[in-house]
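Students often ask why we bother encoding 3D structure as a string. The short answer is that it lets us treat folding as translation between two languages. Here is a chain of 328 residues written in the first language.
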Amino acid sequence: MDRRTVISGAACCIIGATPFHAKAQRPEAPVIGFLSSRSPEESAAHAAAFRRGLADSGFVDPESVVIEYRWAKGDYGRLPGLATSLAKLRVNVLVAVGGTPSALAAKTVAGAIPIVFLIGDDPVKLGLVSSLGRPGRNLTGVTFVTTELGAKRLEVLYELVPNASLSAFLLNPHFADAAAQGEAMQSAARSLGRRLLVLQASTEAQIAASFATLGREGVGVLVVQNDPFFDSQRKQIVALASRNAIPAIYHIREFPAAGGLISYGASLADAYRQVGIYAGRILKGATPGELPVEQPTRFEMVINVKTAKALGITVPQSMLLRADEVLQ
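And here it is in the second language, the structure alphabet:
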């Protein structure tokens, strides 16, 4: 055998061995199932915040983690099937965002798969966790505690529009605990000495019909429920509020950023980022049941003064000074 043959043969051995060696050193990336009751288009900024949280924990999509997205697009009836499809993939972590319906659907089908949820209700009352400090089992996440803020939003709205006698609450009847939310808002209105009209909508057509009712009934101000379906219909709701000259308050800044009047609540982007951080920690070996359920520590008021002017509203200086953000 001559020298050229020996070198050639050695090279073939090296080349042939390289792929095997690379595969052995590079395990498959973990997979996260991302279940949302919302729509991908209007959730783009929040999905990006989730990925930032993952990156903070050392996982970058798609280099070191793979994310499988499932979107219900406001149709809660699709969530069980979408959750099942993710569970069948045997994902390493199942992230359930967009409110209580996603979390409950994930819990039903996940088995032992770790779940990180993002909801606006009490996870203990819902039976998702044993306690906020030590959730137990395979679930943890972030509670947005936004449901209980309905009364505060109504109070803020009347500070902005003090002469409105009749208020309204736009409610999705398919959302968990919808009846209790309606009753709580009625109680809040009575405590302020005001009348409240509860309107129900779970489709685009019903949202449009509700705004027509607002005009007929002479409603002065509107509180929009913190509901993922309404989040997915943000453009429609803001446009109808503008067209019908209805001062409305929302739960997240994305509404006034889109032209709505005012919002009061915690930062949804921060909450999604925390969900990403928790998902990353679980991928690194943390036990979900030992990660405390996170709660927001600060609530923000965002006012769109351009919209206020269009509605003929003069925002009190005291409110402008309290606002966390004033959009021009």
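Translate back mentally: The first strand starts at residue 31 and ends at 36. Keep this in mind for the problem set.
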